Amino acid sequence: MGKCIVCEKTTLERVITLGFHPLADTFLKKEQLLSPQKMYPLNCLLCKNCGHLQNEIFVSGEERYVESNYSYTSSNSPSAMAHWDEFCETVSNFINLKPNDTVIEFGSNDGYLLKQFQKKGAKVTGIDPSPVVAKIANKNGLYTICDFLGSKAINTATKKNGKAKVICGNNVLNHIENLNVAISAIKAGLKSDGYLVVEVPSLRDTIQKYLFDMIFHEHVSTFSIKSIDFLLRKHGLYIVKVENIPYHGGSLRVFATPNAKLYNKSIKKLIVDEEKAKLFAVDTYKKFMEKITRDKNNCLAQLYSLKQRGKKIAAVGAGARSNTLLNFYKLDATVIDFITDASKHKIGKFTLGSNIEVRADNALASKNIDVALITGWNIGKYLIQKIKKINDTVEFIVPGGKKLL
Ligand SMILES: [Zn+2]
Predict the structure, then answer these.
(1) Could you list the mean pLDDT of each consecutive 10-residue stretch along the chain, which spans 405 residues?
(2) Is the dihedral of CA 48, 207, 183, 191 positive or negative?
(3) Can you tell me the distance from the alpha carbon of 179 to that of 175, in angstroms, rounded to the nearest whole number?
(4) CA of 15 to the centre of ligand 1 (A)
(5) Model pLDDT, residue 72
(6) In a 3-state reduction of DSSP, which class is residue 15?
(7) What is the pLDDT, as a whole number, of residue 315?
(8) pTM of this structure
(9) How far is the CA of 54 from the centre of ligand 1 (A)?
(10) What is the CATH number of domain 301-400?
(11) In angstroms, what is the span from residue 371 Cα to ligand 1's centroid?
């Protein structure tokens, strides 16, 4: 079973099994439907030493971001953009960002967040391994190094603009297999009064809200406060503040600095709270698996019944999480007529594994569909408002008792 990617111990136990899954953030062109598709087992291991949850099988970073047609863009919805705007304001105020301070973002994607820091006068550098998104960012005047996060990329970044006042990465650390290499590089690139600010999906929210679809091959791991605290302290970074934010169904926003004197003493209490909530108990995951399996069967029964009555069903929101859901539920184009998404990078392509065509929102008109399965529950309220303007007779189904955000 290998080692924990945080504490490097072998104290791992398999606690989640979701079947075989392809990459979740990759979509296929029509002609690629004639080629074989790679599927990997999607299982998660819990580390009993540091409380980290990680995938059992790792798909190489090269395959995930460089070779594949990786199609996530961070400015892909109004709610995402509002989130990045708020992030920039909150971080700038918290660290008292000054013009000409250096900001490095890893996993900077199309550069939407960097642009906000640039507007505040910061010298910005992006690091992203996907050539597709790095090209978009560079074209928009946001200097972006097309590489994985590591000492080479950080050295290139600091050579250009000096050590960083802020290094940030949102929903990125959880994509990285070599966490110790990454954090060590970050530490070397930070000024002594600099801050690392990261957002990662929260293990507590993932488990307590049954967000199994936040697990996919690109998400190598899910952090507890215990495991991120362990990882950062190991490299001489100390958590000053940790916030629970609603993004992606529940994320941790962590501020850490090299100054040990600023370490927030309440972190220890938060870890005790996680233990009291049985977050590190194997039995918790057994109950999690039982509940998501029950939800799956209920949802399938509902969809099959609608289909037998001749209803046309579309899924709404072709995000990575939708692909986990479609593949765990084993849904394909025999049940789901098509899936919609606002991203022009996805429209006209097909979902991996389930091979469902992605269409634009206007396909949701009443002549085309009777039922909308809200796979994009994380922006579900926004999607429902949007669909109601296109189709006022559609019936909505939210999979697996998910709460719409
Ligand atoms: Zn561990």
Answers:
(1) 95 97 91 93 98 94 64 68 95 96 95 96 95 92 95 96 97 94 98 98 96 94 98 98 91 98 97 98 98 95 96 94 95 97 91 96 92 89 91 91 72
(2) negative
(3) 9
(4) 14
(5) 59
(6) strand
(7) 97
(8) 0.92
(9) 9
(10) 3.40.50.720
(11) 44
- Residue 395 is predicted with a pLDDT of 94
CA of 51 to the centre of ligand 1 (A): 6
Distance from residue 52's CA to the centre of ligand 1 (Å):
6
Domain 78-280 classified CATH 3.40.50.720? no
pLDDT of residue 350: 96
pLDDT at res. 62: 72
Q: Give me the residue spans of the domains in the chain.
A: 78-280, 301-400
Phi and psi (nearest 5°) for 278? Answer: 60, 35
Supply the DSSP string of 339-401, one letter for each residue: EE-S-TTTTT-EETTT-PBEE-GGGGSTTT-SEEEE--GGGHHHHHHHHHHH-SSPEEE-GGG
Q: For residue 398, how far is its CA from the centre of ligand 1 (angstroms)?
A: 35
**Rounded distance, CA 10 to CA 253, Å?**
28
Q: Which residues are near ligand 1, the ion (C-beta closer than 5 Å)?
A: 4, 6-7, 47, 49-50, 52
Does this chain's domain 78-280 share its CATH topology with 301-400?
Answer: yes
